[in-house]
Design goal:
Elements: E1 16-19, E2 23-35, E3 38-47, E4 52-57, H1 61-64, E5 67-68, H2 72-83, H3 93-106, H4 109-119, H5 130-151, H6 155-168
Antiparallel strand pairs: 1-2, 1-5, 2-3, 3-4
Helix pairs in contact: 2-4, 3-4, 3-5, 4-5, 5-6
Length: about 170
């Protein structure tokens, strides 16, 4: 009995993808695996930086937020956001930190760029707290990794390019 898969394959082995909570990964395989007596089609995504492998049921790939690397338009919007003026709300840091974390975990390059823009400090401004710096570096790392794959450059080059945009803004 040969069943057809009811969903289209948007991903193939070797593709770079973005999983919102973990960032950029590479599809290493699309496989069938028996789980609790049910056979599932799974997308196997490797995150080399974190030394992690994630298996996502193909049927749930869309609802988990797994997506292709952003298009040129989305990436351009993110870079334009970086050039904008920082919008720091006058609410408690814990609340802002929660908002920043949810923007980073949304996986949206534009939302991540907003976090970077809002937390970026030039040399002449006050020091960042440890938690601000952690969130800033996490956001910068996420966007730089996706930008690196988008531009087909090294992550360090991508991070430098993003920082250049921030310092010129």
């Amino acid at each position: 009995m040969n069943k057809k898969t009811p969903y289209k394959l948007a991903f193939s082995s070797g593709d770079y993808v973005v999983y919102p909570v973990h960032g950029v990964g590479k599809v290493s395989d699309i496989t069938k695996q028996k789980v609790a007596g049910t056979e599932l089609d799974l997308i196997v995504v490797n995150f080399d930086k974190d030394k992690m492998t994630l298996r996502i049921p193909l049927a749930k790939a869309e609802t988990t937020g797994l997506r292709q690397i952003s298009s040129a338009d989305v990436m351009e919007d993110a870079l334009t956001t970086l050039k904008g003026k920082a919008k720091v709300k006058k609410i408690m840091w814990s609340r802002r930190a929660q908002e920043y974390e949810s923007k980073i975990n949304s996986g949206s390059p534009v939302a991540i760029a907003e976090v970077i823009r809002d937390l970026h400090r030039n040399e002449n401004l006050a020091e960042q707290s440890y938690s601000e710096r952690q969130i800033y570096e996490q956001a910068l790392d996420r966007l730089a990794n996706e930008y690196a794959v988008f531009k087909n450059i090294a992550p360090a080059e991508a991070q430098k390019a993003l920082l250049d945009i921030l310092t010129k803004a």
